[in-house]
Write a structure and sequence with these properties.
Elements lengths: L2 H20 L3 H21 L6 H12 L7 H22 L4 H17 L12 H8 L6 H15 L5 H16 L18 H15 L4 H25 L4 H12 L6 E4 H10 L8 E4 L18 E6 H10 L18 E6 L4 E6 L1
Parallel strand pairs: 1-2, 1-3
Antiparallel strand pairs: 3-5, 4-5
Length: about 350
């Protein structure tokens, strides 16, 4: 839930920074740099990974071989938001660095229970290239952006260089860098982490599609648009099974039930969210992992209760975290004879009554 709002403020920071770079008015320039820092600070309060934007600023300074005193206003803007946040944490917890300490503790717990997010070195280095080329969420988009970037480098389109620094610096670090300062822990390999580079990728593609050269206007622009549009519909169809969203469709059928409802922990969380954390029914979770802290329940022994089996979501979780040991109950795939099907939302989600 935090990827896109944090990416928005990160992009807003780059916007203000580049605005300050182009402005000839001293007051507007300084205000733009200050607002750039404030935007980074807001993005940081939403998600810590937005600090990767510092790599863009570093690459920008090195590439253009310039540094200004006014760049200090970026730090001041960030420091203002950081000071507000740490003050709030201190007043409520007594710990100025509560965010950092709680984040590190949670991360270590996840790694201890779940293992590495992307496997072991060196295979973990290839996860993001694999995602860029194979994810239904991305289609042919990043392949197009890669080819467009080569074109801009060959043609020396200098106005696109800031966007390429933004895109490829952050993408390179996401692929190879570490999310911890004390040990090498690669970032989880998931398309949503690419939200921080989506806007520069879109901008680069947009610049290419609006080039004035006849061959681009008449051949490449319509061809790329048609390819991306049609292929996106196809990939959308391939990835259409949104089992988290489909759970909302089953909510009306369980809202008035007077018996407990069992489901996997992930589905339980989604249902609780859809009920605004005030469900009138009793929701219970069963375990699908060997080493989690969810109650181990023999599903065949459940009587006079309801069970939601969300096979699509369970399989999706397993596919996304292949390095975690799973122990999915047999009943998920082979419901007992005493389970009466009440409602099927799609082929993957079903509501049963265990008599």
């Amino acid at each position: 839930l935090s990827d896109f709002p944090s990416a928005f403020f990160l992009s807003l920071s780059v916007f203000f920074f580049l605005l300050g770079e182009k402005s000839l008015d001293k007051i507007k320039t300084r205000l733009s740099y200050l607002l750039s820092g404030v935007s980074i600070g807001i993005a940081y309060t939403i998600r810590e990974t937005t600090l990767l934007l510092l790599l863009f600023f570093l690459a920008y300074v090195i590439f253009y071989r310039k540094i200004k005193v006014n760049y200090g206003l970026i730090f001041i803007g960030f420091a203002i938001i950081f000071a507000i946040e740490t003050s709030v944490f201190y007043l409520n917890t007594g710990d100025l660095l509560y965010r950092s300490h709680s984040h590190s503790a949670a991360y270590e717990s996840v790694l201890e229970n779940a293992g590495p997010f992307r496997g072991t070195f060196p295979s973990s280095l290839f996860h993001y290239p694999y995602i860029l080329l194979t994810s239904n969420n991305l289609g042919f988009f990043y392949m197009s952006v890669f080819l467009v970037s080569i074109y801009f480098i060959v043609m020396k389109r200098k106005q696109t260089y800031p966007f390429m620094l933004w895109l490829w610096t952050l993408l390179f670090y996401l692929s190879l860098g570490t999310s911890s300062l004390t040990q090498y822990i690669p970032f989880p390999g998931a398309p949503r982490y690419l939200a921080i580079v989506t806007i520069p990728a879109l901008l680069l593609l947009a610049v290419f599609l609006t080039e004035k050269k006849p061959i681009i206007k008449k051949v490449f622009m319509p061809s790329i648009l048609v390819l991306l549009f049609i292929s996106s519909l196809g990939f959308l169809y391939l990835g259409k099974e949104d089992n988290a969203g489909s759970l909302k469709d089953i909510r009306p059928y369980i809202a008035q039930l007077d018996k407990p409802v069992y489901t996997d922990a992930r589905s339980k969380s989604v249902l609780e969210y859809s009920f605004q954390y005030k469900p009138d029914i009793i929701l219970k979770a069963f375990s699908i992992r060997e080493d989690d802290d969810v109650e181990k329940i023999n599903l065949s022994s459940i009587k006079d209760a309801y069970i939601i089996i969300n096979r699509g979501l369970i399989q999706g979780v397993m596919d996304a975290h292949k390095f975690i040991p799973y122990d999915v109950p047999e009943e998920v795939y082979n419901p007992p004879e005493n389970w009466k099907i009440i409602k099927e939302i799609n082929e993957e989600i079903a509501l049963y009554y265990a008599s």
